[in-house]
């Protein structure tokens, strides 16, 4: 299909008097970059925004594998899909229900689209200090309190793998004419094994965004916007033409194709599940370190509707090392780089491409670290999301007069910027929210724990941009 067509064309001898500027010459960088298959929309190579040929074939394959009526290829990440979907599913001024643990791209969409957010705060798992599932009762309560809401946005799975009951939440939402959008960025692998939770659109969501590069073998920035709601298809296409580049990368699109073709191989996922099950058994030997839903820790011990077993959250809560130190040991002593570091846990993302050697190295590392750890409660910064105090809608913050304040002098002021730990990119405080002493303490403590805290204006931890 697309990749083969690109490869054949690169060998055809046709000289490219067109973009891109590298002219498909691999000699420019020792053949490392795939210039020879990087094209633009020349004759015979279709158009992402009006697919009728080889790109349409890739979309059709995605629709087949994800069992949806329409799959849009995304080449500027899940972010482009979220911005497009939110704009397509709302009108300016609408009220939307939003899980407070949403990625900052959702907050950017709220601001750009002039929406009024009403937040649903997930409960926190006491054992691991992570966000739990959004429950149907929480969704129903939010809908009843906001009968004019038009859209419900939920992240499922969360970064750490907590999955919400999308089927029941969607049923409740649709009874009240509320549409459901799921940020399923970390669940692109769900359709390919029964050992994974059910995917969002199949469970009744109106739309979902799945980030292929996060958990499947595809290039960074590749993702899919999925829907089976025919009334949304045209609007999605219109908005993708706004938020997605008009010069899409053919390398990225062919990477999506190759990824989907790989996913047709069920045996690869069968072997992956075997590796996860083996890792699960070996985790039972750990005495002090805890691995979320692995080893002696069961799903039923947590407030999760379901759990994504590809996520490996390793907790050292109550031990004499913190999450930052655990990450450093994994990195320096065992050459294992984790995905995310928090105050008293690290997150590792496994995928179908992991090897037996990789899992063996990880369990060996955990067993050695476990044997050397001692029980000792450290003063870790345990940040949990709370209901924010909203003074100004995010969309009304632009143009307001502001000034930089020292963080310690910003208490009770209105923030005109976002502050977030990255990863996972969930705002600690959003535009228009009142900065409390607790928020300031959390920011200071997270930075002191070695967590990477960012802000829109870039002056955190010293200063934050506030409304005058």
Could you tell me the radius of gyration in angstroms? Answer: 23 Å
User: What summary fits the major beta sheet?
Assistant: 7 strands, mixed
C-alpha end-to-end distance: 57 Å
Strand content: 15-25%
> How many E strands?
18
Question: Into which percent range does the helicity of residues fall?
Answer: 25-40%
Strand order in the largest sheet:
1-8-7-6-4-2-3
Assign an overall shape: globular
Instruction: Determine the number of helices (DSSP H or I, runs of at least 4 residues).
Output: 13
Average pLDDT: 94
Question: Low-confidence parts lasting 5 or more residues at pLDDT below 50?
Answer: none
Helix/sheet category: alpha+beta
Please describe what this structure looks like.
It is a single chain. With 468 residues, this protein is α+β, with helices and mostly antiparallel strands. Helices cover 33% and strands 16% of the residues. The chain contains 13 helices and 18 strands. It has helices spanning 2-10, 54-66, 77-88, 104-112, 136-145, 166-175, 212-215, 230-243, 250-263, 266-283, 323-334, 356-372, 437-448; strands at 70-74, 95-99, 116-120, 149-155, 162-163, 179-183, 207-210, 223-227, 290-291, 306-307, 311-315, 340-341, 345-349, 402-406, 419-421, 426-429, 453-455, 463-467. The strands form five sheets. Strands 1-8-7-6-4-2-3 form a seven-stranded mixed beta sheet, sandwiched between helices. Strands 9-11-13-12 form a four-stranded antiparallel beta sheet. Helix 3 runs parallel beside helix 4. It is globular and about 65 Å long. The model has no long low-confidence stretch (mean pLDDT 94).
């Amino acid at each position: 299909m697309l990749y083969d067509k690109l490869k054949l064309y690169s060998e055809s001898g046709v000289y490219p008097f067109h973009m891109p500027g590298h002219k498909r010459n691999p000699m420019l960088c020792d053949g490392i970059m795939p210039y020879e298959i990087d094209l633009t929309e020349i004759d015979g190579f279709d158009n992402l925004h009006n697919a009728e040929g080889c790109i349409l074939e890739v979309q059709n394959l995605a629709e087949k594998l994800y069992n949806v009526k329409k799959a849009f290829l995304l080449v500027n990440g899940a972010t482009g899909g979220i911005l497009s979907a939110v704009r397509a599913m709302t009108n300016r001024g609408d009220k939307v229900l939003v899980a407070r643990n949403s990625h900052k791209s959702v907050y950017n969409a709220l601001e750009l689209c002039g929406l009024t957010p009403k937040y649903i705060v997930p409960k926190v798992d006491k054992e691991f200090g992570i966000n739990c599932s959004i429950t149907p009762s929480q969704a129903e309560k939010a809908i009843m309190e906001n009968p004019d809401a038009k859209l419900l946005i939920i992240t499922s799975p969360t970064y750490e793998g907590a999955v919400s009951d999308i089927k029941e939440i969607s049923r409740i939402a649709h009874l009240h004419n509320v549409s459901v959008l799921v940020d399923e960025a970390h669940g692109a692998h769900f359709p390919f094994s029964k050992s994974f939770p059910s995917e969002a659109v199949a469970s009744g969501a109106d739309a979902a965004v799945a980030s292929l590069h996060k958990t499947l073998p595809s290039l960074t920035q590749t993702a899919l916007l999925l829907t089976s709601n025919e009334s949304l298809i045209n609007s999605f296409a219109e908005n993708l033409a706004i938020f997605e580049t008009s010069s899409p990368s053919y390398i990225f699109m062919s990477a999506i194709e190759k990824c989907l073709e790989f996913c047709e191989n069920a045996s690869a996922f069968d072997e992956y599940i075997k590796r996860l099950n083996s890792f699960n058994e070996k985790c039972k030997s750990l005495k002090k370190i805890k691995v979320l839903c692995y080893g002696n820790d069961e799903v039923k011990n947590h407030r999760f509707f379901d759990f994504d077993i590809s996520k490996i959250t390793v907790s050292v809560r109550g031990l004499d090392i913190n999450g930052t130190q655990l990450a450093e040991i994994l990195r320096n002593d065992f050459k294992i780089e984790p995905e995310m570091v928090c105050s008293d846990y690290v997150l590792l993302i496994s995928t179908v491409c992991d090897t037996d050697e990789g899992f063996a190295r990880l369990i060996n590392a955990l067993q050695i670290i476990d044997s050397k750890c001692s029980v000792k409660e450290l003063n870790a910064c345990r940040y949990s999301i709370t209901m924010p105090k909203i003074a100004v809608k995010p969309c009304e913050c632009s143009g307001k007069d502001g000034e930089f304040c020292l963080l310690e002098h910003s208490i009770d002021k209105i923030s005109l910027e976002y502050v977030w730990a990255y990863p996972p990119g969930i705002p600690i405080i959003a535009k228009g929210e009142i900065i409390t002493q607790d928020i300031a303490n959390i920011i200071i403590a997270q930075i002191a724990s070695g967590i990477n805290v960012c802000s829109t204006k870039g002056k955190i931890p010293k200063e934050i941009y506030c409304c005058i």
